[in-house]
């Protein structure tokens, strides 16, 4: 017997009572928030439903028998404890919506067969442990909405970024290098942010030596800079308005 939590046992009767018909006319088998720890085998009897919701449980594994649900258009497995996906998920060719966020999936645990879901429009891989995204996901040409938030991604493959129909791609809270701000260029001019005035007697010998060195350097720079305070002399130029002063009377007469 396993030592882990047994979870709630789902019977076929319970499952049948959990089927609802939504506004679009699809039948949804809703077993969310049921405390399920293992995939209920009994629901294979209801494999003709169009939507299956097993979200917010404690599932660690989805068996390959998921391939029985060939009519599935919508599959929600978010908020479980899944650390892998079955290869058989690639057989669900009619899927348009797949939510597997908030699990324990890694890049290695994503099966290559995921790229066989050619009709997929929404794929949510957020809140997992992904360090990279397989370039093969670029085969999902119908994808419109892709969730990659809260992972450990450093890059997004061009094949995924350039998907022809993609409209939304949530990559928030990933250490993406392309989103990092470029380092500011080093400022060659040292700018003073704080100025503290002290007497020499209050400084230790090393600080005093450093201050004197900086003072000498400042004086050296001052000697190299032209002093604008000195009166400028232009001996070859006429004093401003001197000609005007000599000819004022002549101009008045005219």
Automatic annotation (TrEMBL):
One GO cellular component term of this record is: cytoplasm
Q: Which key words tag this protein in UniProt?
A: Leucine-rich repeat, Repeat
Q: Where are the transmembrane segments?
A: none
The record's annotation in Pfam families points to: LRR_1, LRR_8
* Gene assigned in the entry: Lrrc18
Q: What is this protein called?
A: LRC18 protein
What Gene3D superfamilies does the annotation carry? Ribonuclease Inhibitor
Q: Has UniProt tagged this entry with the keyword Repeat?
A: yes
SUPFAM superfamilies attached here?
L domain-like
Q: Where is this region: Disordered?
A: 226-254
Q: Which PANTHER family match?
A: LEUCINE-RICH REPEAT-CONTAINING PROTEIN 18-LIKE, PTHR48051
């Amino acid at each position: 017997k396993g030592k882990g939590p047994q979870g709630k046992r789902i019977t076929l009767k319970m499952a049948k009572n959990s089927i609802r018909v939504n506004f679009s006319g699809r039948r949804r088998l809703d077993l969310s928030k049921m405390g399920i720890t293992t995939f209920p085998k009994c629901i294979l009897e209801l494999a003709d439903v169009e939507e299956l919701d097993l979200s917010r449980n404690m599932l660690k594994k989805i068996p390959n028998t998921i391939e029985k649900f060939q009519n599935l258009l919508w599959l929600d497995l978010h908020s479980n404890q899944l650390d892998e996906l079955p290869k058989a998920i690639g057989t669900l060719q009619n899927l348009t919506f797949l939510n597997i966020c908030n699990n324990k999936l890694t890049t290695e645990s994503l099966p290559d067969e995921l790229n066989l879901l050619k009709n997929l429009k929404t794929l949510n891989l957020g809140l997992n442990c992904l360090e990279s995204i397989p370039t093969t996901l670029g085969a999902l040409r119908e994808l419109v909405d892709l969730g990659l938030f809260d992972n450990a991604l450093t890059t997004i493959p061009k094949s995924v970024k350039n998907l022809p129909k993609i409209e939304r791609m949530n990559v928030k809270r990933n250490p993406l290098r392309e989103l990092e701000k470029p380092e500011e260029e080093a400022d060659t001019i040292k700018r003073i942010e704080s100025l503290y005035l002290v007497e020499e007697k209050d400084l230790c010998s090393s600080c005093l030596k450093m201050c004197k060195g900086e003072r000498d350097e400042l004086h050296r720079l001052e000697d190299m800079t032209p002093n604008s305070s000195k009166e400028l002399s232009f001996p070859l130029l006429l004093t401003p308005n001197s000609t005007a002063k000599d000819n004022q009377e002549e101009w008045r007469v005219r």
